[in-house]
Amino acid sequence: PAGILGTGATVFTSIGYMPKSNTVLKSYPNPCNQKTVLNFDISTPDNIAIQLFDLKGSLVAVIYNGTLTAATYQFEVNLTHLPTGIYTLQLQGSQLYGIQKIMVIK
To answer: How far apart are CA 19 and CA 63, in angstroms?
Structure first.
């Protein structure tokens, strides 16, 4: 029923571990057509997975999966194979987590 949680309550839609730090994951342009560019910083070396999901939660592409050193990174992501829609970019490591929605318009 509406109103049970009250104002300002947080509703969790998934259960998992709580990351030690959030990572700001930015993409531009957004909305995009052919490609988008991801920017993010890593403060300590970590095993990183960057994945692209559709709104159903299906994995569409693995952008990167490997070890990165502490640095500022920029990844260009080719989107020419994707139809128009909204997608979620997810960056995950043992010490961090970042998520960014992108809109692809053809």
So the answer is: 21
Contact 6, 84 (CB under 8 A): no
pLDDT tens readout for residues 58-77: 999 999 999 999 899 998 99
Give pLDDT tens digits for 42-55. 888 999 999 999 99
Per the CB < 8 A criterion, the answer to whether 93 and 49 are in contact is yes
Q: How far apart are CA 60 and CA 98, in angstroms?
A: 17
pTM of the model: 0.75
Is 20 in contact with 96 (CB distance < 8 Å)?
A: yes
CB 38 within 8 A of CB 27: yes
Residue 8 phi, psi (nearest 5): 80, 5
